[in-house]
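Crash report, auto-generated. Payload:
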Amino acid sequence: MAQLHLPPVLPPLFPGLPRELEVEAATVNEAIDRLNERWPGVRDRLVQPGPELRPHINVYVDRERGGLDSSLEPASRVDVIAAISGG
Amino acid sequence: MSNSMLLVGTRKGLFVLESDDRRDWSVRGPYCESWPIYHAVLDRDSGTVFAAAASEWLGSAIWRSDDLGETWEHSSEGLGYPEGDNGLKLSKVSHVMPVHGRLLVGAESAGLFESTDGGKTFSLLTTFEGMEGREAWNDPAQQPPGHLGLSAIIPHPDEPGRFWVVIQGFSLFETNDGGQTWEPRNKGLRRDWPADYEEIGFCVHKVAPAADFERMFQQNHVGMHRSDDGGKTWTEITEGLPTEFGFAAATHPHDRDTFFVIPLDPGHGRTMPDGKAAVWRTRDAGSSWQRFDQGLPTKNAYVGVLRDGMAIDKQDEPGLYFGTSTGQLFASTDDGERWSQIGGLFPGITSVTVATVE
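Recovered output after restart:
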Protein backbone atom coordinates (compact mmCIF):
# COMPACT_ATOMS: atom_id res chain seq x y z
CA MET A 1 0.00 0.00 0.00
CA ALA A 2 1.40 3.37 -1.00
CA GLN A 3 1.32 6.14 1.57
CA LEU A 4 -0.41 9.19 0.13
CA HIS A 5 0.15 12.64 1.64
CA LEU A 6 -2.25 15.33 0.42
CA PRO A 7 -1.99 19.12 0.48
CA PRO A 8 -3.97 20.95 3.19
CA VAL A 9 -6.17 22.72 0.61
CA LEU A 10 -7.76 19.43 -0.45
CA PRO A 11 -9.49 17.86 2.61
CA PRO A 12 -11.79 20.87 3.25
CA LEU A 13 -13.34 20.26 -0.17
CA PHE A 14 -14.26 16.62 0.49
CA PRO A 15 -15.83 15.63 3.79
CA GLY A 16 -13.92 12.78 5.40
CA LEU A 17 -10.87 13.03 3.19
CA PRO A 18 -7.77 12.79 5.42
CA ARG A 19 -4.41 14.42 4.81
CA GLU A 20 -2.71 11.02 4.86
CA LEU A 21 -4.01 7.65 3.71
CA GLU A 22 -2.98 4.38 2.12
CA VAL A 23 -3.99 3.30 -1.38
CA GLU A 24 -3.40 0.21 -3.48
CA ALA A 25 -2.12 1.47 -6.82
CA ALA A 26 0.61 0.78 -9.36
CA THR A 27 0.96 4.39 -10.54
CA VAL A 28 0.23 7.90 -9.32
CA ASN A 29 -2.61 8.07 -11.83
CA GLU A 30 -4.15 4.95 -10.34
CA ALA A 31 -3.73 6.28 -6.84
CA ILE A 32 -5.69 9.38 -7.80
CA ASP A 33 -8.36 7.18 -9.37
CA ARG A 34 -8.66 5.21 -6.12
CA LEU A 35 -9.12 8.49 -4.26
CA ASN A 36 -11.73 9.62 -6.75
CA GLU A 37 -13.74 6.44 -6.23
CA ARG A 38 -14.18 7.26 -2.57
CA TRP A 39 -14.33 11.04 -2.90
CA PRO A 40 -15.80 11.84 -6.32
CA GLY A 41 -14.35 15.00 -7.77
CA VAL A 42 -10.87 14.74 -6.25
CA ARG A 43 -9.39 13.91 -9.62
CA ASP A 44 -10.73 17.14 -11.15
CA ARG A 45 -8.93 19.13 -8.47
CA LEU A 46 -5.53 17.56 -9.18
CA VAL A 47 -5.64 16.62 -12.86
CA GLN A 48 -6.60 18.63 -15.94
CA PRO A 49 -7.49 17.36 -19.42
CA GLY A 50 -4.62 15.64 -21.12
CA PRO A 51 -4.58 14.12 -18.63
CA GLU A 52 -1.83 15.97 -16.80
CA LEU A 53 -1.29 17.34 -13.34
CA ARG A 54 -2.58 20.87 -12.85
CA PRO A 55 0.18 23.45 -13.30
CA HIS A 56 0.58 24.24 -9.60
CA ILE A 57 0.19 20.67 -8.36
CA ASN A 58 3.38 18.69 -7.91
CA VAL A 59 3.90 15.04 -7.05
CA TYR A 60 6.93 13.49 -5.41
CA VAL A 61 7.34 9.72 -5.23
CA ASP A 62 9.79 8.63 -2.56
CA ARG A 63 11.12 12.21 -2.49
CA GLU A 64 11.72 12.28 -6.26
CA ARG A 65 9.75 14.55 -8.58
CA GLY A 66 7.16 12.43 -10.36
CA GLY A 67 4.11 12.58 -12.56
CA LEU A 68 0.91 10.74 -13.31
CA ASP A 69 2.81 7.87 -14.92
CA SER A 70 5.26 7.37 -12.05
CA SER A 71 5.33 3.80 -10.78
CA LEU A 72 4.60 3.05 -7.16
CA GLU A 73 6.17 0.34 -5.02
CA PRO A 74 4.08 -1.26 -2.29
CA ALA A 75 5.70 0.96 0.34
CA SER A 76 6.09 4.12 -1.72
CA ARG A 77 5.47 7.50 -0.19
CA VAL A 78 3.59 9.91 -2.48
CA ASP A 79 3.57 13.60 -1.58
CA VAL A 80 1.05 15.74 -3.45
CA ILE A 81 2.10 19.34 -3.06
CA ALA A 82 0.20 22.49 -4.00
CA ALA A 83 2.87 24.95 -5.08
CA ILE A 84 3.65 27.80 -2.73
CA SER A 85 2.63 30.40 -5.25
CA GLY A 86 0.19 33.24 -5.66
CA GLY A 87 -0.49 36.23 -3.44
CA MET B 1 -39.81 40.66 7.43
CA SER B 2 -37.73 40.73 4.27
CA ASN B 3 -33.97 40.66 4.39
CA SER B 4 -31.65 42.00 1.79
CA MET B 5 -28.81 39.69 0.89
CA LEU B 6 -25.71 40.70 -1.00
CA LEU B 7 -23.46 38.08 -2.56
CA VAL B 8 -20.03 39.64 -2.86
CA GLY B 9 -17.58 37.68 -4.97
CA THR B 10 -13.93 38.52 -4.38
CA ARG B 11 -10.47 37.41 -5.38
CA LYS B 12 -10.41 35.47 -2.12
CA GLY B 13 -13.79 33.85 -1.73
CA LEU B 14 -17.45 34.73 -1.45
CA PHE B 15 -18.95 36.90 1.27
CA VAL B 16 -22.62 37.11 2.24
CA LEU B 17 -23.98 40.34 3.66
CA GLU B 18 -27.44 40.55 5.19
CA SER B 19 -29.60 43.38 6.46
CA ASP B 20 -33.22 43.94 7.40
CA ASP B 21 -33.00 47.71 6.96
CA ARG B 22 -30.28 48.11 4.30
CA ARG B 23 -28.30 50.25 6.74
CA ASP B 24 -26.70 47.79 9.16
CA TRP B 25 -25.15 44.79 7.46
CA SER B 26 -23.81 41.57 8.91
CA VAL B 27 -21.00 39.83 7.08
CA ARG B 28 -20.40 36.09 6.68
CA GLY B 29 -17.55 34.39 4.87
CA PRO B 30 -15.19 33.99 3.19
CA TYR B 31 -16.81 30.95 1.60
CA CYS B 32 -15.80 28.60 -1.20
CA GLU B 33 -12.44 27.97 0.48
CA SER B 34 -11.36 31.45 -0.58
CA TRP B 35 -11.20 30.48 -4.24
CA PRO B 36 -11.38 33.46 -6.61
CA ILE B 37 -15.06 34.09 -7.36
CA TYR B 38 -16.07 35.44 -10.75
CA HIS B 39 -19.83 35.58 -10.23
CA ALA B 40 -22.38 34.43 -7.68
CA VAL B 41 -26.15 34.48 -7.71
CA LEU B 42 -29.16 33.29 -5.72
CA ASP B 43 -31.59 31.09 -7.65
CA ARG B 44 -34.90 32.40 -6.40
CA ASP B 45 -36.79 29.28 -7.50
CA SER B 46 -34.67 26.73 -5.66
CA GLY B 47 -33.19 28.95 -2.96
CA THR B 48 -29.71 27.75 -3.92
CA VAL B 49 -26.74 30.07 -4.05
CA PHE B 50 -24.38 29.35 -6.93
CA ALA B 51 -20.87 30.69 -7.33
CA ALA B 52 -18.55 30.42 -10.33
CA ALA B 53 -15.02 30.03 -9.02
CA ALA B 54 -11.61 29.20 -10.40
CA SER B 55 -8.65 28.31 -8.22
CA GLU B 56 -5.17 28.77 -9.66
CA TRP B 57 -4.22 25.50 -7.98
CA LEU B 58 -7.33 23.34 -8.11
CA GLY B 59 -9.17 24.43 -11.25
CA SER B 60 -12.71 25.62 -11.89
CA ALA B 61 -15.94 24.60 -10.24
CA ILE B 62 -19.46 25.73 -9.56
CA TRP B 63 -20.07 25.96 -5.83
CA ARG B 64 -23.59 25.64 -4.46
CA SER B 65 -25.24 26.19 -1.12
CA ASP B 66 -28.80 25.21 -0.22
CA ASP B 67 -28.74 27.10 3.08
CA LEU B 68 -27.79 30.61 1.96
CA GLY B 69 -24.11 30.03 2.36
CA GLU B 70 -23.82 28.13 5.62
CA THR B 71 -22.64 24.93 3.94
CA TRP B 72 -21.25 24.36 0.47
CA GLU B 73 -20.58 21.69 -2.11
CA HIS B 74 -18.79 22.06 -5.40
CA SER B 75 -18.68 20.27 -8.72
CA SER B 76 -16.84 20.47 -12.00
CA GLU B 77 -18.18 17.22 -13.40
CA GLY B 78 -18.64 17.86 -17.10
CA LEU B 79 -17.06 21.32 -17.04
CA GLY B 80 -14.47 20.76 -19.72
CA TYR B 81 -14.03 20.73 -23.47
CA PRO B 82 -13.76 17.54 -25.50
CA GLU B 83 -10.27 16.47 -26.44
CA GLY B 84 -9.37 17.68 -29.88
CA ASP B 85 -11.98 20.43 -30.12
CA ASN B 86 -9.47 22.76 -31.71
CA GLY B 87 -7.52 22.60 -28.49
CA LEU B 88 -10.02 24.60 -26.46
CA LYS B 89 -9.10 24.61 -22.79
CA LEU B 90 -11.25 25.71 -19.92
CA SER B 91 -9.27 28.18 -17.83
CA LYS B 92 -12.12 29.44 -15.69
CA VAL B 93 -15.86 29.57 -15.19
CA SER B 94 -16.82 33.23 -15.52
CA HIS B 95 -20.56 33.46 -15.03
CA VAL B 96 -23.37 31.36 -13.59
CA MET B 97 -27.07 31.97 -14.11
CA PRO B 98 -30.28 30.06 -13.37
CA VAL B 99 -32.43 30.16 -16.50
CA HIS B 100 -35.95 28.77 -16.11
CA GLY B 101 -34.97 25.51 -14.43
CA ARG B 102 -31.58 25.13 -16.04
CA LEU B 103 -28.32 26.36 -14.64
CA LEU B 104 -26.14 27.93 -17.33
CA VAL B 105 -22.43 28.53 -16.94
CA GLY B 106 -20.19 30.72 -19.06
CA ALA B 107 -16.53 29.80 -19.37
CA GLU B 108 -13.20 30.75 -20.85
CA SER B 109 -12.37 29.59 -23.52
CA ALA B 110 -15.75 30.89 -24.62
CA GLY B 111 -18.32 28.21 -24.10
CA LEU B 112 -21.69 27.66 -22.50
CA PHE B 113 -22.48 24.74 -20.20
CA GLU B 114 -25.78 23.67 -18.69
CA SER B 115 -26.84 21.70 -15.67
CA THR B 116 -30.27 20.17 -15.30
CA ASP B 117 -29.66 18.68 -11.85
CA GLY B 118 -29.07 21.81 -9.85
CA GLY B 119 -25.37 22.19 -10.42
CA LYS B 120 -24.25 18.63 -9.62
CA THR B 121 -23.24 17.76 -13.19
CA PHE B 122 -22.78 19.77 -16.36
CA SER B 123 -22.79 19.23 -20.09
CA LEU B 124 -21.47 21.39 -22.87
CA LEU B 125 -24.20 23.32 -24.64
CA THR B 126 -22.10 25.13 -27.23
CA THR B 127 -18.75 26.59 -28.12
CA PHE B 128 -20.42 28.48 -30.99
CA GLU B 129 -19.08 26.16 -33.66
CA GLY B 130 -19.07 27.58 -37.14
CA MET B 131 -19.89 31.11 -36.09
CA GLU B 132 -18.21 34.10 -37.63
CA GLY B 133 -15.45 35.38 -35.38
CA ARG B 134 -15.08 32.22 -33.31
CA GLU B 135 -11.52 31.66 -34.50
CA ALA B 136 -10.62 35.19 -33.48
CA TRP B 137 -12.12 35.14 -29.99
CA ASN B 138 -10.41 31.82 -29.31
CA ASP B 139 -7.05 33.22 -30.43
CA PRO B 140 -4.97 34.04 -27.33
CA ALA B 141 -3.24 36.81 -29.27
CA GLN B 142 -6.56 38.65 -29.54
CA GLN B 143 -7.62 38.25 -25.93
CA PRO B 144 -7.16 40.80 -23.16
CA PRO B 145 -5.38 39.83 -19.93
CA GLY B 146 -7.66 37.99 -17.57
CA HIS B 147 -9.91 36.96 -20.43
CA LEU B 148 -13.35 35.87 -19.27
CA GLY B 149 -14.54 34.17 -22.44
CA LEU B 150 -18.31 34.06 -22.11
CA SER B 151 -18.65 36.82 -19.55
CA ALA B 152 -22.42 37.28 -19.14
CA ILE B 153 -25.69 35.35 -19.40
CA ILE B 154 -28.86 37.47 -19.41
CA PRO B 155 -32.08 35.46 -19.26
CA HIS B 156 -35.41 36.81 -20.44
CA PRO B 157 -37.76 36.65 -17.46
CA ASP B 158 -40.77 35.24 -19.34
CA GLU B 159 -39.38 33.37 -22.36
CA PRO B 160 -37.42 30.27 -21.30
CA GLY B 161 -35.61 29.79 -24.60
CA ARG B 162 -34.59 33.40 -24.98
CA PHE B 163 -31.42 34.81 -23.49
CA TRP B 164 -28.39 36.87 -24.33
CA VAL B 165 -24.72 36.17 -23.78
CA VAL B 166 -21.63 38.31 -24.08
CA ILE B 167 -18.38 37.02 -25.50
CA GLN B 168 -15.80 39.35 -24.11
CA GLY B 169 -14.28 41.68 -26.63
CA PHE B 170 -16.38 40.41 -29.52
CA SER B 171 -20.14 40.41 -29.30
CA LEU B 172 -23.51 40.34 -27.66
CA PHE B 173 -25.51 37.36 -28.91
CA GLU B 174 -29.17 36.45 -28.59
CA THR B 175 -30.74 33.01 -28.76
CA ASN B 176 -34.43 32.25 -29.00
CA ASP B 177 -34.14 28.47 -28.92
CA GLY B 178 -32.37 27.82 -25.68
CA GLY B 179 -28.86 28.15 -27.04
CA GLN B 180 -29.03 26.15 -30.27
CA THR B 181 -28.75 29.11 -32.64
CA TRP B 182 -27.46 32.63 -32.10
CA GLU B 183 -27.70 36.07 -33.64
CA PRO B 184 -25.13 38.81 -33.04
CA ARG B 185 -26.76 41.92 -31.56
CA ASN B 186 -24.30 44.71 -32.21
CA LYS B 187 -25.95 46.91 -34.85
CA GLY B 188 -25.25 50.56 -34.16
CA LEU B 189 -22.40 49.99 -31.71
CA ARG B 190 -19.21 51.93 -32.22
CA ARG B 191 -15.76 50.42 -32.57
CA ASP B 192 -12.53 52.34 -32.91
CA TRP B 193 -10.37 49.54 -34.22
CA PRO B 194 -9.96 47.62 -37.48
CA ALA B 195 -12.67 45.04 -37.95
CA ASP B 196 -12.32 41.66 -39.58
CA TYR B 197 -16.06 41.00 -39.41
CA GLU B 198 -19.04 43.20 -40.10
CA GLU B 199 -21.22 42.02 -37.24
CA ILE B 200 -18.59 40.75 -34.78
CA GLY B 201 -15.77 42.60 -33.05
CA PHE B 202 -17.47 44.89 -30.54
CA CYS B 203 -16.22 45.19 -27.00
CA VAL B 204 -19.36 44.74 -24.93
CA HIS B 205 -18.63 45.25 -21.25
CA LYS B 206 -22.06 45.18 -19.63
CA VAL B 207 -25.66 44.89 -20.80
CA ALA B 208 -28.34 45.92 -18.32
CA PRO B 209 -31.96 45.41 -19.42
CA ALA B 210 -34.93 47.34 -18.10
CA ALA B 211 -37.84 45.35 -16.70
CA ASP B 212 -39.54 45.15 -20.11
CA PHE B 213 -36.43 43.72 -21.79
CA GLU B 214 -37.04 45.91 -24.83
CA ARG B 215 -35.10 48.80 -23.32
CA MET B 216 -31.48 47.87 -22.66
CA PHE B 217 -28.43 49.87 -21.72
CA GLN B 218 -24.90 48.90 -22.60
CA GLN B 219 -21.56 50.04 -21.26
CA ASN B 220 -19.16 49.35 -24.08
CA HIS B 221 -15.39 49.76 -24.23
CA VAL B 222 -16.17 52.77 -26.37
CA GLY B 223 -19.31 54.48 -25.23
CA MET B 224 -22.61 54.06 -23.50
CA HIS B 225 -25.43 52.80 -25.68
CA ARG B 226 -29.15 52.23 -25.49
CA SER B 227 -31.44 49.81 -27.28
CA ASP B 228 -35.21 50.12 -27.50
CA ASP B 229 -35.76 46.85 -29.37
CA GLY B 230 -34.28 44.15 -27.19
CA GLY B 231 -30.74 44.66 -28.39
CA LYS B 232 -31.42 44.48 -32.13
CA THR B 233 -30.17 48.03 -32.65
CA TRP B 234 -28.18 50.41 -30.48
CA THR B 235 -27.84 54.18 -30.20
CA GLU B 236 -24.92 55.86 -28.49
CA ILE B 237 -25.77 57.99 -25.44
CA THR B 238 -22.30 58.84 -24.16
CA GLU B 239 -22.68 62.62 -24.43
CA GLY B 240 -22.67 64.20 -20.99
CA LEU B 241 -20.56 61.51 -19.33
CA PRO B 242 -16.95 62.27 -18.31
CA THR B 243 -15.52 59.26 -20.13
CA GLU B 244 -16.79 56.75 -22.64
CA PHE B 245 -15.27 53.86 -20.72
CA GLY B 246 -16.53 51.81 -17.78
CA PHE B 247 -17.63 48.38 -16.77
CA ALA B 248 -20.39 48.30 -14.18
CA ALA B 249 -23.93 49.47 -14.82
CA ALA B 250 -27.45 48.97 -13.51
CA THR B 251 -30.95 49.74 -14.73
CA HIS B 252 -33.72 50.95 -12.42
CA PRO B 253 -36.17 48.08 -11.86
CA HIS B 254 -39.29 50.28 -12.05
CA ASP B 255 -38.31 53.07 -14.42
CA ARG B 256 -37.04 52.15 -17.87
CA ASP B 257 -35.55 55.59 -18.38
CA THR B 258 -33.34 55.52 -15.29
CA PHE B 259 -29.93 53.98 -15.47
CA PHE B 260 -26.71 54.10 -13.44
CA VAL B 261 -23.12 53.86 -14.58
CA ILE B 262 -19.63 54.36 -13.19
CA PRO B 263 -17.39 55.95 -15.81
CA LEU B 264 -13.70 55.07 -15.51
CA ASP B 265 -10.47 56.38 -16.91
CA PRO B 266 -10.25 54.74 -20.34
CA GLY B 267 -6.48 54.14 -20.14
CA HIS B 268 -5.06 50.99 -18.71
CA GLY B 269 -5.53 52.34 -15.18
CA ARG B 270 -9.30 52.02 -15.47
CA THR B 271 -9.98 53.80 -12.19
CA MET B 272 -12.25 56.66 -11.17
CA PRO B 273 -11.45 59.76 -13.27
CA ASP B 274 -9.08 62.12 -11.43
CA GLY B 275 -9.29 59.91 -8.34
CA LYS B 276 -12.80 61.15 -7.57
CA ALA B 277 -15.36 58.41 -7.08
CA ALA B 278 -18.78 59.08 -8.57
CA VAL B 279 -21.85 57.36 -9.90
CA TRP B 280 -23.70 58.90 -12.83
CA ARG B 281 -27.42 58.62 -13.42
CA THR B 282 -29.78 59.38 -16.25
CA ARG B 283 -33.52 59.73 -15.75
CA ASP B 284 -34.29 60.35 -19.42
CA ALA B 285 -32.81 57.27 -21.09
CA GLY B 286 -29.44 58.89 -21.67
CA SER B 287 -30.39 62.33 -22.96
CA SER B 288 -28.78 63.89 -19.89
CA TRP B 289 -26.62 62.68 -17.00
CA GLN B 290 -26.18 63.72 -13.38
CA ARG B 291 -23.13 63.07 -11.22
CA PHE B 292 -23.43 61.91 -7.60
CA ASP B 293 -20.59 61.54 -5.11
CA GLN B 294 -22.05 62.30 -1.68
CA GLY B 295 -20.62 59.72 0.70
CA LEU B 296 -18.10 58.44 -1.81
CA PRO B 297 -14.35 59.12 -1.56
CA THR B 298 -13.76 62.19 -3.70
CA LYS B 299 -10.02 62.54 -3.23
CA ASN B 300 -7.25 60.10 -4.12
CA ALA B 301 -9.81 57.43 -4.89
CA TYR B 302 -8.00 55.50 -7.59
CA VAL B 303 -10.37 52.58 -7.47
CA GLY B 304 -12.04 50.62 -10.23
CA VAL B 305 -15.29 48.72 -10.51
CA LEU B 306 -15.49 45.58 -12.64
CA ARG B 307 -18.30 44.55 -14.99
CA ASP B 308 -20.24 42.52 -12.45
CA GLY B 309 -19.43 44.89 -9.62
CA MET B 310 -22.75 46.75 -9.46
CA ALA B 311 -26.22 45.54 -8.50
CA ILE B 312 -29.67 46.95 -7.83
CA ASP B 313 -32.51 45.35 -5.90
CA LYS B 314 -36.20 45.44 -6.80
CA GLN B 315 -37.67 47.09 -3.72
CA ASP B 316 -40.00 50.08 -4.10
CA GLU B 317 -37.06 52.34 -3.34
CA PRO B 318 -34.31 50.25 -4.89
CA GLY B 319 -31.01 49.67 -3.16
CA LEU B 320 -28.00 50.25 -5.37
CA TYR B 321 -24.65 48.66 -4.56
CA PHE B 322 -21.18 48.57 -6.01
CA GLY B 323 -17.91 46.98 -5.01
CA THR B 324 -14.46 48.09 -6.05
CA SER B 325 -11.62 46.03 -7.40
CA THR B 326 -9.75 47.00 -4.23
CA GLY B 327 -12.43 45.77 -1.86
CA GLN B 328 -14.67 48.65 -0.77
CA LEU B 329 -18.42 48.18 -0.91
CA PHE B 330 -20.87 51.08 -1.20
CA ALA B 331 -24.66 51.31 -0.96
CA SER B 332 -27.37 53.85 -1.76
CA THR B 333 -31.11 53.68 -1.18
CA ASP B 334 -32.05 57.01 -2.76
CA ASP B 335 -31.44 56.38 -6.43
CA GLY B 336 -27.72 56.84 -6.17
CA GLU B 337 -27.72 60.33 -4.67
CA ARG B 338 -26.13 59.52 -1.29
CA TRP B 339 -23.80 56.66 -0.54
CA SER B 340 -22.32 54.91 2.45
CA GLN B 341 -19.59 52.32 2.73
CA ILE B 342 -20.85 49.04 4.12
CA GLY B 343 -19.55 45.71 5.35
CA GLY B 344 -15.85 46.27 5.91
CA LEU B 345 -12.78 45.92 3.76
CA PHE B 346 -12.79 42.99 1.40
CA PRO B 347 -10.40 41.41 -1.06
CA GLY B 348 -10.76 42.79 -4.57
CA ILE B 349 -14.44 42.60 -5.52
CA THR B 350 -15.32 40.97 -8.83
CA SER B 351 -19.06 40.50 -8.46
CA VAL B 352 -22.00 41.93 -6.52
CA THR B 353 -25.51 40.58 -6.75
CA VAL B 354 -28.47 41.31 -4.50
CA ALA B 355 -31.61 39.45 -3.56
CA THR B 356 -34.49 40.02 -1.21
CA VAL B 357 -35.23 36.95 0.91
CA GLU B 358 -38.22 36.41 3.20
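Post-recovery validation: The interface with chain A takes residues 33, 56-59, 61, 74-77, 80-81, 83, 89-90 of chain B (CB under 8 Å).
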